[in-house]
């Protein structure tokens, strides 16, 4: 298997196993971070998460669509420096098209069925992140980058 295929496989497995990510947004020069439940598209070109429209994160994204998500598999032990996977996903956030909402809802609620009712709330939205770059640290000071094709 090629190195590109290896990193894609590792990213796919990590995104499949982990349910939560730390979302970073920026507004007026100030960084904000929030925990979000996320899901990834099969081709890894996009991810999504749900949020309320009256949240700071939604307002921040409305002002600046550039976001980053951080996903890891740490166990809170010293061994994490050598064995933890830490993935940063850089991308642009926005609302999915009306054609994409049903597909995203299926993907999202398959991974997070307990959030189905939240999605039914009139104040909730699915936010889609178009991925620009994945940066994967697979051991201490070893980082690989990968762009999904397309």
Number of helices: 5
**How much helicity do the residues have?**
25-40%
Q: Major sheet, described briefly?
A: 6 strands, antiparallel, barrel
Topology as a string of helices (H) and strands (E): HEEEHEHEHHEE
CATH superfamily: Electron Transport, Fmn-binding Protein, Chain A
Shape: globular
Kindly report the CATH topology: Pnp Oxidase, Chain A
Quick check: average pLDDT?
Answer: 91
State the secondary-structure class. Answer: alpha+beta
Percent in strands: 35-45%
The CATH class designation is Mainly Beta
CATH architecture: Roll
Based on DSSP secondary structure assignment, what is the total number of beta strands?
7
End-to-end gap: 21 Å
Strand order of the largest sheet: 1-2-3-6-5-4
What is the total number of structural domains?
1
Low-confidence stretches: none
Describe this structure in words.
By secondary structure, the chain is of the alpha+beta class. It has helices spanning 3-17, 56-63, 80-83, 98-111, 116-120; strands at 20-27, 30-40, 46-52, 66-72, 86-94, 124-139, 142-146. It has a single domain (3-146), classed as Pnp Oxidase, Chain A (Roll). It is globular, with a radius of gyration of 15 Å. The mean pLDDT is 91.
